[in-house]
Amino acid sequence: MTTIANNLQQVQARIAQACAAAGRDPDSVSLLAVSKTFGADAVLEAVAAGQRAFGENYIQEGVDKIAAVRAALPAAALQWHCIGPIQSNKTRLVAEHFDWAHTVDRLKIAERLSAQRPAHLPALQLCIQVNVDAGPTKAGVPPAEVLDLVCAVAKLPRLQVRGLMSIPDPAPSHEAQRAVHESARRLFEQIRQTGAPGLEKFDTLSMGMTADLDAAIQAGSTMVRVGTGIFGGRSRPTP
Ligand SMILES: *Cc1c(COP(=O)(O)O)cnc(C)c1O
């Protein structure tokens, strides 16, 4: 077995264990393989091991990789998620090439994605990034403003609002990680319970990475984004 296949198995086992500990169905948590900085060859290895959903941070790198992977495997039904910051001048690439975007935190970016999503593609699936631990320099909408943004984005055509995403700062303990993830979960439930129009598919809580996926699953994550645990350490930093 390749290292990537072996790592994927171990991450899946960790997810299953965290679900069992939390009394959750293992199928209620999906695994996004974060392939940023790794080449198309690494993605192909993961696909051969059964992985279908991939996350990219750098938009141009992601677009190039999507093309390379599609050329190698034209028939594979893969899902590509943009999980990096989206500047206005990059919205068109995201709208034209990705299936999901997790980092929307301004209405203007959502409006551009909506206008630029090609008519022949299904709606772009969106998560709103929330700055759940309120770091002053961090991306994400403040918790108090998230409902208004979700409702505004839900009205835009060619987009489907799927949920919330968060990237909390590293916390010193499992309990501290869990407490931050729990606050994201509460926000997510509050928004869901409004039953506001356009939230029919508001079912995704994108949180948890290699270091904290267990705590995130205990807190209710439905999608963990794992890079290092699958592909190994990265040699260059990412935004
Ligand atoms: C890099 C990255 C991940 C994966 O992080 P690992 O610690 O390598 O698992 C998840 N989410 C986002 C937004 C990232 O940028």
Automatic annotation (TrEMBL):
**What's the domain of life for this entry?**
Bacteria
Q: Which family does it belong to?
A: Belongs to the pyridoxal phosphate-binding protein YggS/PROSC family.
Cofactor(s) recorded for this entry are: pyridoxal 5'-phosphate
Residue limits of the Alanine racemase N-terminal domain? 7-234
Task: Report the protein name in the record.
Answer: Pyridoxal phosphate homeostasis protein
List keywords of the entry alphabetically: Pyridoxal phosphate
Question: InterPro entries of this UniProt entry?
Answer: Ala_racemase_N (IPR001608), PLP-binding_barrel (IPR029066), PyrdxlP_homeostasis (IPR011078)
- Source species taxonomy: Bacteria, Pseudomonadati, Pseudomonadota, Betaproteobacteria, Burkholderiales
GO MF entry, a single one: pyridoxal phosphate binding
Q: Does the keyword rRNA-binding apply?
A: no
Question: What is the protein's known function?
Answer: Pyridoxal 5'-phosphate (PLP)-binding protein, which is involved in PLP homeostasis.
Would the keyword Cytoplasm be found if you checked this record's keyword annotation? no
Give residue numbers for the modification (N6-(pyridoxal phosphate)lysine): 36
CDD domains given for it?
PLPDE_III_Yggs_like
